[in-house]
Amino acid sequence: MKGKGIWRRVGAVAVVAGAASMVLAGCSSNGSASASADTAKAESAHLRIIVNISPNLTVAYWNKLFAKYEKAHPGVTVKLERTGTISAADKLNQDLAAGDPPDIVQQVTPSADTAKLFTDLSKESWTKKTPLVDNYKINGKTYLVGAGEQVQSLVFYNKEAFTKAGLDASKIKTVAQFTKAMGKLKDAGYVPLQTAGQWVTGSQFTLFNDSTTMTKTPDWIKKRREGDVTFAGDKDYMKSLKAYKSWVDKGYLQKSDLGLAYADGQTNFLEGKSAMYIMGSFFVPAADQAKASDDFGVFSMPTTGTYPTKQFSNIADPYVVVKQSKNQKAAISLVKWLTTDKTAVGSELAADGNFRKGYTYTMSSLGKGVQKIVDASPGGFVEAADEQPLPGYSTELNSQIQSLYSGSTPKQVAENLDTWWDSQTQ
Amino acid sequence: MAGPAVLLYSALMVVPVGVAIYLSFTDWDGFSDAAFIGIQNYTHLFTDPNTTHSMWVTVLIVIFGSAFQIGFGLMYALALRQKSRTNSVFRALTYYPHVISALILGFLWNAILGTKGALNTLLAPFGIGPVGFLFEQNLALISLIAVIVWAGFGFNVVLFVAALQTVPLELIEAAEIDGASRWQINRNIVIPMIAPVVTVALILSLIGLLRAYDIVVSLTGGGPAGSTSTYAYVILAQSFGSTKIGYANAQAVFLMIVSAALALLVTALRNRSDKAAEGEG
Amino acid sequence: MTAETAVRMPRRRRRERVNVGRVIMLALLVPLMGGPAYILLVNAFKTQQDIQSQPFGIPFDRLTLQPLIDAITSPEYNVVASYGFTAAIVVVVDVICIALAGPAAYVIARSTSRKTRLLMLYFLAGTFIPGAAMVIPAIYVLRTLGLVNSFAGLVLYDSATTLPVSIFLMVGYIATVPRDIDQAASIDGAGRLRTFWTIIFPLLRPAVVTVLILNSIGLWNDFVSPQILLGPSSDQYTVTTAIYTGISQYTTDLTKVFPNLLLAVAPVIVFFLYMQRHIISGLTVGATKG
After folding, report:
1. Greatest CA span in chain B, whole angstroms?
2. pTM to 2 decimal places
3. Could you list the residue range(s) of the whole structural domain that residue C108 is in?
4. Is the ipTM of this complex over 0.85?
């Protein structure tokens, strides 16, 4: 049979090829393991780092930044690790599960439960100079350091839209005034408030509500963890939900925007299709890049409490070193560079529109506007450490807020949030 | 001779099942020590709103997806059973999505049904605002099921055509001579004769839809508001990335149990109806 | 009367009544099934502007190869680069599968003992286990074996999952091979294993082709296993994981989405067109035996 001989030959070749590739694969993974063990001694290392990729912080940007470090530290290579569409925290968990974690991770906030995964940096004296380092301490120990801070209790607006609608941004301080402004903008032919799908919907609501709640009760999240307060029972939460729902009902927020990705929503706003956009200070570089900064203004989040509220603050470019990493020294060295080296820090701040005492960079008019708000605010609040919501909360909140567009009531949303929160027994 | 197969299969399929069962009774987070917590994870399956919602979504997909995949498969198989060049082309046309990865099909349909997708761009000039195929909660689920049916019915068409072509012509001709209509012939002769194949198709459909994951990742990402998050999607996209590994394993074990139960149930029902049929015939 | 002529005859006998319902049904197929393929093909050669404004049109004067070229030469998540790696996985798993499933199926098909019937059930149970459920505990097993995030680990896992169905199909087919052949071989003094590979196996071509085709398609399109078992740290991408990681970054840049999807789909479609006959006959062999 003709088939027999050919089968055999094909089979033999395939088996050899397969065996060879398996051996090669085995060799390469063994090779890198021994390589990193050796290089720890020889002051060279291969570091893997998970970073946040966004329209501002592109892969190209990070590679350029790391190239600078590699040049100054021959023998060290830094490799970006991508996460696809999942969050850095999830990716880290998956990598840990697979027994193959990276050396450094960005965008992961340690909690009391997860602190043991990360290297304790408290003894490193340089960490004391990094911003917001105390807010992120767990049990008095430092695991997280960052390059700067970002603020997010901001509402950006299209100047032309405001002129057309006869609005003065400096007069919008209360939620009632905010809602009224939206009505006028709608009449002037604009989509009053820009939202998007992905994580944007829930995030914008958090910025809106938490600016009020956390200013009034700085330990509200801790209280929720301990069960002393509930979403449904909190007056401010309910007020925020009702306000948001009223905007949805009146068409100030567009349901079809839920189908937009974060980048698309931002583009819509930049192109002047919508009038206002709740977003963090990292919007500024995007506006700068689109050469449109002068067309936009910014004001602090409207509130039902005292104005201005504290600013929702986040550490920017936060880094943790994974304890299981085999390149501790090299990793800590890179993190130190990323958070204390003037060139590195300056670059990270400018790229994402972040702030840090003692660092200035040429800001656009919009950037200056944000700086003014930061200077005028009574301070910031950080949702980390004790004030960190339960893991998964932002995803759940996002789902719930999106359901407001499909007929859920504020009461249902609040109750669902409570049910979800309480069911997370661990 | 069967040794190597048994070894590989046991090591990488049976042992993991055992590991999953073991871990499902613990609170393992992926890196610390695991503590035994009894059936807590299993009760949590029914108290966690995320999980219960995904079960509901999956049930809907399994029921409607299978029904339409089998239904359309049968309809088109009956229409395309004759051997001809045109019919071959049409059959290939129904079947080609099956050879393409579900992930890719999801991205393609996302580009078609999205807010700024091809379909909405087509409808825009007629004043029809962007239709929420993928961002309107209930509609998104319908879109998901529709895409799943679109991708899967062709497989059944091919299967059923092959089975139909084994139906002896004499039976059909005899019935025609007796004056039976095509509909009656199909219903009373043809379909019962291909019943075993339909059962196989049904089982494959049910089990396949229970694990719907790839298509969800690329078509809707589980959204909007979790309305298209299937059970498998919750396991892989959420639980696996969290620190609740014990829970993820409980979810996995539950899925295995349901899959097996469903397959056995369908087989048992068919066997019973077979015996009943034999009794009559 | 052979089956072929049996099916062809009625067309001469019946009056050619145009079945309107059938015509409508088939006519619907063209836009429904052909539409998405058309959109994929056409938009891979357009500019972003054209894709967004006229997704169904073909602007002949503005068609461009640039997006496709960019996709082919992309330094990241290169789909074309992933062809080789994915093909390697498919080939190795196919070989392991046949090498293991063949003899196992032979033993099961030829034996009459109760024990082997249980063995068949043991393997059959594997067809019910959903991949999504199994891949999570599998990661920990592979981790213990030191094979996580490696080509070897992924390949072994994939091979294991192909065994149940492959064994099942081959058992059904081997049962149709007369036992006299085995006996003739053993008279000549050949051992069981040798008998299988030299005498029986060549007779199993249809079943082996079916198994190879079914497995190959499934493996090429598999997303869950490589996504979970072969993370980005391994720096290796299959076609599916390359598309996933690449496209999720570019959902707004349609000049990246369409060409990459086209590249991902092209090999499969070519394979499909070429092997159509085998694929379909293989499927039906499998199903009707079931």
Report:
1. 76
2. 0.83
3. 80-288
4. yes
